[in-house]
Amino acid sequence: MLTVLVSFRPVPDEPNYKAQLEAWHQNRVTSLKSENGWLNLAGLFWLKEGKNSLGRGSDFDIAFPVANAPADLGLLYLQNGDVRFAPKGGATVTIDGKPVSDPVVIFSANSKPTVLSHGSLRWFVIKRGEKYGIRLRDLDSPFLKEFHGIERYPVNETWRVKAHLEKPTQPKTIPILDVLGQTSQQPLAGTLVFDLQGKTYRLDAVGEGSKLFILFGDATNAHDTYGSGRFLYADKPADSLDGSGTTVLDFNQAINPPCAFTPYATCPLPPKQNKLAVAITAGEKRYGDH
After folding, report:
1. What Rg do the C-alpha atoms of the chain give, in angstroms?
2. How many Cβ atoms from other residues are within 10 Å of residue 160's Cβ?
3. Beta carbons within 10 angstroms of residue 289's beta carbon
4. How far apart are CA 101 and CA 88, in angstroms?
5. pLDDT tens digits for 40-82?
6. Residue 192: which of 251, 151, 135, 134 has the closest Cα?
7. CA–CA separation, 59 and 78 (whole Å)
C-alpha cells in the first residue's frame, strides 16, 4: 500500500456553495418522490422455486394490497434463475402500457428486469444473493403522501474536507453485510484518509460508476441520525503517476439509506472499519426507523 503524507484541511467555501447544495438537496428530494424513488415502495415478496400465485388479497403466495376488491393477477414461475409471468385472463396487467395476454419472461440473468403494472401498482424482480423477490411500488403509497422533507444539519463548510485515496496494490474486496443478513464481497476502490478536528480518519470506499461510494457510521447514529449509518458519494480522484490522488468528502451531502424511508429496501450496512469515533454533525438527520 502506497502512503503519501499530506496535510488535509477543510475545503474553502466556494461562491454560491450553499445555493448549490440546496439545489443538490432539492434534486435528492425529487428523486425520492419520483416513480423510481424509494418513497413508493409497498412490498417485498420472496419467490419460491416453481409456481407462485400473484394477486391483490391474502389468498395468494404473492399478496399485493387490496384496492377496491381482491383480484387474481396471474402466476409467476421461478425456474433456473428465470422468472416468467402468466397473466390471468381479464386481469389488465400491462408492460409499457400494453396489456399482457401471453406468458412472458420478466427476469433473466442477461436482461433488464421488466416492470409490470396494474392500476397504481408497479412491480419487478430483484435478486439478492441466491434469493429472487418481487419489489412492489404503489404510486399512491402512504409513505409518499406522508413525506414532508428531510431534516438536515445546518450547512457548514468545515465538513468539506480533502481526502487522499490509498489504492490497494492488488485487487481486493471487502465484505459488506446487508439488512437481510447476507454478505457480499465488494471491490475495494481504496481507503480515503482525511483529517477532522485535528485527528486522522480512514474510510474504505467501493466504486459506483464515476463515483466513490462510502458506507459510514459515526457518533450521531445513536440519537440524531439513522441508527445503521449513512451513505456518502465522492468523485473519484484523477490518477497520477505515483498512484496517489485526492478528492473532496462533503459530509453536508451525507444521506439516509433507503431503509430510513421504507421497510421494503435491502440496504447494505457500514463495515466495522467505517464506523467513525467522531460525531459528523452534517448532512441528513434521522428520518425513520423502518
Report:
1. 22
2. 21
3. 10
4. 8
5. 999 999 999 999 999 999 999 999 999 877 899 999 999 999 9
6. 251
7. 19
- Cα–Cα distance measured from residue 159 to residue 254, given in angstroms and rounded to the nearest whole number: 10
pLDDT at residue number 103: 96
All three cell numbers of 243, joined, read 498512484
Q: What is the pTM of this model?
A: 0.86
Walk me through the domains of the chain, giving residue ranges and CATH numbers. 17-35+150-274 (no CATH), 41-140 (2.60.200.20)
242: confidence class by pLDDT, cuts 50, 70, 90? very low
62-64 and 50-56: which strand pairing? parallel
> What pLDDT digit, counting tens, does each position of 260-285 carry?
999 999 999 999 999 999 999 999 99
Using the 8-state DSSP alphabet, how is residue 263 labeled? T
Q: For residues 91-112, b (16+ Cβ closer than 10 Å) or e, as one string?
A: bebeeeeeebeeeeebbeeeee
Cα–Cα distance between 210 and 234 in angstroms, integer?
9
Number of Cα atoms under 13 Å in the Cβ half of residue 282: 20
CB contact set of 135 (below 8 Å; sequence gap of 6+):
41, 43, 44, 123, 124, 125, 126, 264
User: Would you say residue 11 has pLDDT above 60?
Assistant: no
- Give the contacts of 144 (CB within 8 A, at least 6 positions apart): 33, 39, 40
Q: Which residues of 162-199 are buried (b: 16+ CB within 10 A; e: fewer)?
A: bbbbbbbeeeeebebebbeeeeeebebbbbbbbbbeee
Length of the chain (residues): 290
The 3-state DSSP class for residue 20 equals: helix
* DSSP letter, residue 218: -
Alpha-carbon gap, residue 186 to 188, rounded angstroms: 6
**Contact between 100 and 92 (Cβ < 8 Å):** no
